[in-house]
Amino acid sequence: MKLSYFQILSQHPIDIEIGHIKPITIGTIRHIGEDIYKSLLFYAVLNVNKFYKNFIPDRYNEYLSSSKEEQDAVSLFDLVCGVDDIIADYEYLFNLFFVEDIKFSIRDKRFNIIEKTNEADQDGEVHHVINENNFDEVINIIAQLCNMENSSAQDEYSNIKDKATRDLYAQIENARRKRRSKKAVKKEDPMYNIGNMISVVSAYGNNGLNCLDIDNVTIANLYDQFIRIIIDRQYHISARNVSVWGDSDKKFKGDSYLKNLNET
């Protein structure tokens, strides 16, 4: 399910039939901590390929060498349900975004979506579930609300039908992974740090927001406003250059600032 631009920018929960997913706000991120939020984003964009690479690397080459049919048969949900700590992380993630309460059932191997009729109702009733049939779709929606993309593609080599070629690519990928593990982790671009984006939007947004009242802004709105400021600055620079030097190449677009940021 691809969310519309309107849905992504809305502050209201999105009805996905099995429940309601609400966008996360700056205030919520401030409350849980930026580091925890960033770690949760990893689970929002997790797929089978990333699971093998990060959690069971000793079987990663075996996975890459398997046929496309075998790779497609691997369920991310089944992999997740095999690790208690990861189950707990997803339960936390879902409770952060769902209006309803989410609780994992070991017996039924599913995340129960629980609705309470009133405040006195301690247990509530299970109305819907998150299971192998809709798990990927749910985390994909959460990823979109966080300005992230969750690819359902298993890995970049899954379309290679020749086993010998896949084996070769698996060896190359393994060598790359070992080299990367020896290098220091690349630091986050400070320009896209949440704190810096808050500062820029508060100072240059001309939308009435400031560092004191920005807690109610969703992370999707923050990214949107930040990128809009960049586009607006670039537009004015280009317009000024064209007014002085002309546009002989016909590259200047007078409506470039109206670009739909949700376009693929």
Report on the structure:
It is a single chain. The chain starts with a helix and ends in a 19-residue tail after the last helix. It is 50% helix and 8% strand. It is mostly helical and 264 residues long. The chain folds into two domains: 5-182, no CATH class; 190-258, no CATH class. It is built from twelve helices and five strands. Helix 2 crosses helix 3 and helix 11 (194-204) crosses helix 12 (219-245). The strands form two sheets. A three-stranded antiparallel β-sheet has the order 3-4-5. A two-stranded antiparallel ribbon has the order 1-2. Strand 1 and strand 2 (20-21) form a beta hairpin.
Give a brief outline of the structure.
The chain is built from 12 helices and 5 strands.
Could you list some keywords that capture this structure?
single chain, 264 residues, mainly alpha, 2 domains, two-stranded antiparallel ribbon, 12 helices, 8% strand, globular
**Count of extended strands:** 5
Which term fits the overall shape? globular
Rg over alpha carbons? 22 Å
Number of domains: 2
Mean pLDDT comes to 82
Report the major sheet. 3 strands, antiparallel
- Helix residue percentage: 40-55%
Distance between the termini: 14 Å
Q: Which percent band covers the strand fraction?
A: 5-15%
Widest sheet, order of strands: 3-4-5
Order of helices and strands: HEEHHHHHHHEEEHHHH
- Annotation field: number of helices: 12
Low-confidence stretches: 152-166, 179-186
Which structural class is indicated by helix and strand composition?
mainly alpha
